[in-house]
């Protein structure tokens, strides 16, 4: 993955989570959307979840692929896509039984992110492990500003991707 692409992905992940987290302070009714703001809450939550699939693969490319990392990222990616789509169906289209599908997907996100953090820590990839752990914690506290933690963590990744790009350009 090109460093500039990685930087864009990292910024997108961080901004999506920060936006959705800050939006929670105006108390949108995402479970029963009526107003424009309610719909923005539903869609932005699904976008933030969906972007974690791409973000997970970015972490894997920065860490250097290994079997355990690939498994953790696959669980994370599948869970994030399932949760994002199920959230739109459950809250947006008001199909209540999709809440179970959403919960399954969100469980995959959390298990995958935690497994990724542990795998990266065991492999002594400390800053990527810290990123995964900060993202995990930020998801849990997203209704109370946790998305800002995710934003800061992913901005560090964007800066690292930018530096990697400059190093590649000067090496060539």
Strand content: under 5%
Alpha-beta content class: mainly alpha
Shape: globular
Secondary structure tally: strands: 0
Poorly predicted ranges (pLDDT <50, ≥5 residues)?
166-172
Radius of gyration: 16 Å
Describe this structure as you would to a colleague:
The chain is an all-alpha fold and 172 residues long. The chain has six helices and no strands. Helix 1 packs antiparallel against helix 6 (146-171), helix 3 runs antiparallel to helix 4 (98-122) and helix 5 (126-140) packs antiparallel against helix 6 (146-171).
Short overview:
The protein has helices at residues 3-23, 36-63, 67-92, 98-122, 126-140, 146-171. The chain is mainly alpha-helical. α1 (3-23) packs antiparallel against α2, α4 runs antiparallel to α5 and α5 (126-140) packs antiparallel against α6.
Which terms summarize this structure?
172 residues, mainly alpha, 6 helices, globular, disordered C terminus
Show the helix and strand layout.
Elements: H1 3-23, H2 36-63, H3 67-92, H4 98-122, H5 126-140, H6 146-171
Helix pairs in contact: 1-2, 1-6, 2-3, 3-4, 4-5, 5-6
């Amino acid at each position: 993955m090109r460093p500039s692409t990685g930087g864009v992905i990292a910024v997108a992940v961080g901004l999506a989570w920060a936006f959705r987290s800050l939006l929670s302070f105006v108390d949108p009714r995402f479970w029963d959307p009526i107003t424009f703001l309610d719909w923005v809450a539903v869609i932005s939550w699904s976008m933030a979840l969906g972007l974690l699939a791409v973000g997970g693969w970015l972490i894997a490319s920065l860490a250097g692929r290994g079997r355990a990392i690939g498994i953790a990222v696959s669980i994370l990616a599948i869970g994030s896509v399932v949760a994002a789509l199920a959230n739109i169906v459950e809250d947006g289209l008001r199909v209540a039984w999709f809440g179970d599908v959403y919960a399954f997907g969100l469980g995959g996100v959390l298990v995958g992110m935690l497994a990724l953090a542990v795998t990266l820590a065991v492999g002594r990839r400390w800053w990527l492990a810290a990123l995964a752990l900060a993202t995990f914690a930020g998801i849990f506290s997203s209704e109370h500003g946790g998305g800002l933690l995710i934003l800061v963590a992913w901005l560090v990744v964007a800066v690292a991707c930018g530096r990697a790009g400059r190093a590649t350009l000067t090496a060539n």
